[in-house]
Amino acid sequence: MSPKVTEEHRESKRQEIVEAALRVFIRQGYLATTMKDVVEESGLSRGGVYLYFSSTEEMFRAMVEEIDQANARQDEELLSAYPTVWEAIAAMFALLRKELLRIREGVVPVLIEAFAAEWRKDSFRDLLERRYAEGCVQLERMLQTGVDRGEFRPRIPIRTIAKMFSSIQGGIMVDTTQFGAAGTEAPEQIEGYLLSLRYLIGVREEGDPA
Amino acid sequence: MSPKVTEEHRESKRQEIVEAALRVFIRQGYLATTMKDVVEESGLSRGGVYLYFSSTEEMFRAMVEEIDQANARQDEELLSAYPTVWEAIAAMFALLRKELLRIREGVVPVLIEAFAAEWRKDSFRDLLERRYAEGCVQLERMLQTGVDRGEFRPRIPIRTIAKMFSSIQGGIMVDTTQFGAAGTEAPEQIEGYLLSLRYLIGVREEGDPA
DNA sequence: TCATAAAACGACATGTGTGTCACTTTTAAA
DNA sequence: TTTAAAAGTGACACACATGTCGTTTTATGA
Questions:
Q1: Cβ atoms of A117 and A31 closer than 8 Å
Q2: Is the CB atom of residue B123 positioned under 7 angstroms from any atom of strand D?
Q3: Nucleic strand C within 7 A of Cβ B198
Q4: pLDDT per position as a tens digit, A41-83
Q5: pTM above 0.90, yes or no
Q6: pLDDT-above-70 percentage for chain A
Q7: Residue B179 pLDDT more than 60?
């Protein structure tokens, strides 16, 4: 006698289900998605899926956790990939621009819908807070590095700048999602962001007096 | 014989129902609100309410229309109330700041939830587009006035500036709603906005050379 | 005060999503 | 090959929101 011991391929099964869920979320929207839909998309049965997740909300949670990890990794790499902080920041905005252009096929609208739907739940408080903190802290850290290196001479506290641009990023994503490409003309905006950011953090030109 | 002719107090009845709906929306969130809830809050009966609205979505529509009208009126007044355009803009941001501080008791979270929930519906496309357009156009008009009067000397197209600040406003509202007061420190941000806006539009100091 | 039409009522039929649970299949160790 | 414990199945019972519709109430004008 011996029971079958499940290895961690259980995790890969969870993964599969989350991927199926994401496809449905993207196709018909987070709010219009029911367990039934995910069950069908995943190819499993009702009971099978419930073995891993008991609501679309849980799937969304798992999804966000993964996305956030990936983002954190990406941001981490940016700083080390460019000689100056300013170039790293510019690259960051270029990434944002790319994401904006692909927004209609992507994950962003799902995130927006889902967070707007779930933010009142206490069980989401921690997720929200972590997201917000990370969004700010990342940029703040980059700015601080720039200041330390003598690259920047900020006109207002970098913390304020970081918070401001964190809000901007959210705002433009919402706009692009809900109002469509016609509404935002994303590329133009990104340039405006960079220019005003450049001013606020006081990027020194070469040969600028210390 | 003579039928009872309804005057336009029908409109006031609609108003009453919309107000009841808003109370419920604020209390438990747009998505968690059912017709049953609104029926109870309004004091009418199921059939009575259905005589005016057949879904919470319709009520929300009516609500938005009214809010937008009020906003448009308010913005209109701003320009004429201040001697310089810059002061009018500063006053606009002061209003925004006030709204941010009261966000938790207010309508903004409901708007966010509802638009995130409904934006995919074709029947909302017009509402969304109008909202977005008005949000931008209003600021753009103010900026243009400032340019015409020689108050401003913008560094990038005012259209871009208007779009950018329109996104910012949305972003900060979402942040304040979902992340709470702890998340955004609204007052600080507003000052940052104003400073960077001031730079972008090139507000001339007194005695500045033309 | 009476007649009539609109306003309001509320029980009911319907549709749909949810979570469970007794049962079948698969898997791997013995 | 046997065995037992997981994985997986899908019908079912349940809850709940929706929209309707026959009935009752209200208000007006004759």
A1: yes
A2: no
A3: no
A4: 999 999 999 999 999 999 999 999 999 999 889 888 988 899 9
A5: yes
A6: 92
A7: yes
Nucleotide nearest to B50 (CA to C1'): D19
| Identity of residue A56 | T
Helix (H, G, I), strand (E, B) or coil at A154: coil
Neighbours of B162 (CB within 10 A): 22
DSSP state of B6: P
pLDDT given for residue A70 in this prediction: 92
The protein residue nearest nucleotide C30, judged by CA to C1', is A1
Angle at alpha carbon of residue A115, lines to A62 and B30, rounded to 5° = 135
Sign of torsion, CA A16 A17 A20 A25?
Answer: negative
Touching B: A residues 169-188, CB under 8 Å = 169-172, 174-175, 177-179, 182-185, 188
Please answer whether residues A192 and B164 qualify as being in contact, where contact means their C-beta atoms are separated by less than 8 angstroms: yes
Residue B134, Cβ neighbours under 10 Å: how many? Answer: 15
Per-residue model confidence as pLDDT tens digits over B67-110? 999 988 988 898 889 999 999 999 999 999 999 988 888 899 99
Check: CB of residue A35 under 8 Å from CB of residue A46. Answer: yes
Separation CA B88–CA A2 (nearest Å): 78
Q: Does residue B147 sit in helix, strand or coil?
A: helix
CA distance B71 to B83: 21
The answer to whether the beta carbons of residues A33 and A56 sit under 8 Å apart is yes
Which of B194, B191, B173 has its CA nearest to residue B183? Answer: B173
Provide the terminal-to-terminal Cα distance of chain A, rounded to the nearest Å. 77
